[in-house]
Design a protein that fits this description.
Layout lengths: L4 E4 L13 H12 L3 E5 L4 H7 L8 E4 L4 E4 L4 E4 L6 H10 L4 E2 L4 E4 L3 H11 L4 E5 L2 E5 L5 H12 L6 E5 L5 H6 L2 E4 L5 H6 L2 E2 L4 H15 L14 E4 L5 E3 L7 E5 L3 H15 L4 E5 L11 E3 L8 H7 L7 E4 L5 H22 L4 E4 L2 H4 L17 E5 L7 H6 L2 E5 L3 H12 L15 E6 L7 E5 L13 E2 L4 H6 L3
Parallel strand pairs: 1-2, 1-10, 2-3, 10-11, 11-12, 15-20, 15-21, 16-18, 16-19, 17-18, 17-24, 19-20
Antiparallel strand pairs: 3-4, 4-5, 6-7, 7-9, 8-9, 13-14, 13-23, 21-22, 22-23
Helix pairs in contact: 1-8, 3-4, 10-11
Length: about 475
């Protein structure tokens, strides 16, 4: 399962004229029965929503007030995600006589009264943001929006935004859709949201949402191919300086070659994954990756890791893991990997995480004598195999990987030998041999020729944090209904 949750706007998305039809609720119930989580993300104030939406208990979390309030339907508890509005600001707006609604954090009015709002914000020297959505004018703290509220909800549910589908219809849904891995605008959505979304439904409102719900249940959105690629995994730059990206998010790749080029390319890919918010787990036999700044390391060069600790840590979406196997005796590593990799892929089949797995020195951990394979049925997609001896890998893996990146002076010969071994057919190769920081890249399921690439790097952000290591195993109401 890749998509484990759906985040839905209320008015204009699942609701039409403030009501959610029974058949839409039935469809959402079927989605929940498939094991997915449901999160409602709305600009409405919570008490108003509770008064009009009896089906709210279907949702695992509700984000109200445009990201400022979290509600847990299962026990009725609430959590403020923003500060109350300044009293002087509220009193000033009330004194002006404009229509006004005040929630726990949100303050709202309608157009054309935004001029009064902006003048008062300036006069009081306040740091507030003004969000427009159709006829609504919403005033919130600067860090609060639908995306910030959804992050909190997902954190409580133990979910990653990279496994979320989001649906909306209005201007204030941009942040929501941008945070999600797959974004949907209903057919009745504003034009700029449609332009930004991965998919636009055929039907409007809840019927449009049901189109997406049906495909999530039936194919995990395999049929609704996004109109454009977001968060593409860049592996390097070609001769013209263009990005060379993975052709699919359901792809595995083999990195091979001489010297330290393979580790450099592997580290560059991990940095890209981390920056894009994807969770990874690295099986590291030589300690090449134990100093990755954003990862927690399990085991050291002298102490072996504990499988249970790794699996427990990977339940948290924001944990990036490096499993150092240097202290595991070589004759025990294959058995150790079996105890870790099989349950890790089983977890991924259910939760969609970790999004990527890297196996270093793969010829030792998954040797030709093993029966390992890379078929989707084993949960082995999105795996990076690093080896200096690809012919020593399990045949099932060699036959199933989608691409190969070869580093070093002998890269061309490596590609020729690999193509012959797996029956891909000999590729046409660039005349130049890779230098340091370069590789030959070939994806067999695309029409791309073999490319000579400069390995992509990610500029590190300034940080004083030390790498983590773990060394042991009304009028306003009417308008807001459309927000």
């Amino acid at each position: 399962m890749r998509y484990t949750a759906i985040a839905l706007d209320y008015d204009g998305t699942i609701a039409h004229d403030s009501e959610v039809p029974a058949h839409v609720l039935d469809g959402l119930a079927r989605l929940r029965e498939s094991g997915r989580k449901l999160v409602l993300v709305t600009g409405r104030e919570l008490d108003e929503l509770l008064g009009i939406f009896p089906g709210i208990g279907l949702f695992d979390r509700v984000v109200a007030e445009n990201g400022a309030l979290l509600y847990r339907p299962h026990d009725g508890s609430r959590k403020d995600l923003g500060e109350p509005p300044p009293e002087a600001f509220v009193q000033g707006l009330r004194a002006s006589g404009i229509p006004l609604s005040v929630g726990e954090t949100i303050v709202a009015t309608v157009r054309p009264h935004e001029a009064v709002v902006l003048e008062l914000i300036a006069a009081l020297g306040l740091e507030l943001q003004v969000i427009f959505n159709k006829g609504a004018v919403m005033i919130l703290p600067p860090s609060v929006n639908k995306a910030s509220g959804l992050r909190v909800a997902l954190g409580e549910l133990g979910l990653s935004p990279r496994n979320v589908v989001a649906c909306g219809d209005g201007e204030n849904d941009h942040a929501l859709l941008d945070l999600a891995e797959y974004s949907v605008a209903t057919a009745n959505a504003v034009s700029n949201l449609k332009a930004a979304a991965d998919w636009v439904t055929t039907a409007t409102h809840g019927d449009g949402v049901l189109e997406v719900v049906a495909d999530i249940i039936e194919s995990d959105l395999a049929r609704l191919v996004p109109r454009r690629r977001r968060r593409a995994l860049c592996i390097g730059k070609d001769a013209e300086g263009g990005d060379v990206v993975f052709p699919s998010r359901r792809a595995s790749v083999l990195i091979t070659g001489e010297g330290r080029g393979t580790s450099a390319l592997g580290a560059a890919l991990l940095a890209r994954l981390c920056k894009a918010g994807y969770q990874f787990c690295v099986l590291d036999t030589r300690g090449d990756y134990i100093h990755l700044p954003d990862a927690v390391t399990f085991g050291t060069m002298t102490n072996p890791p504990a499988v249970e600790e790794v699996l427990t840590a990977m339940e948290k979406p924001d944990v990036q893991a490096v499993v150092c196997l240097a202290a595991v005796p070589e004759d025990e590593r294959h058995e150790f990997v079996g105890r870790l990799l099989v349950p890790l892929r089983e977890v991924r089949a259910m939760t969609g995480r970790p999004h990527w797995i890297m196996v270093d020195e793969a010829h030792d951990l998954l040797p030709a004598s093993s029966e390992a394979d890379d078929s989707p049925a084993t949960g082995a997609e999105n795996t990076i195999y690093v080896t200096d001896d690809p012919m020593a890998l399990a045949p099932g893996i060699l036959a199933s990987v989608d691409g190969i990146a070869a580093c070093g002076e002998a890269a061309a010969e490596t590609l020729d030998a690999f193509a012959a071994a797996v029956g891909w057919g000999r590729p046409a190769l660039p005349p130049q041999r890779p230098r340091a920081g370069q590789a030959l890249l070939w994806f067999r399921k695309t029409e791309r020729p073999v490319a000579l690439i400069d390995v992509a790097t990610v500029r590190s952000e300034p940080s004083h944090a030390k790498p983590q290591q773990r060394e042991h195993s009304a009028e306003v109401g009417q308008v807001l209904r459309r927000a």
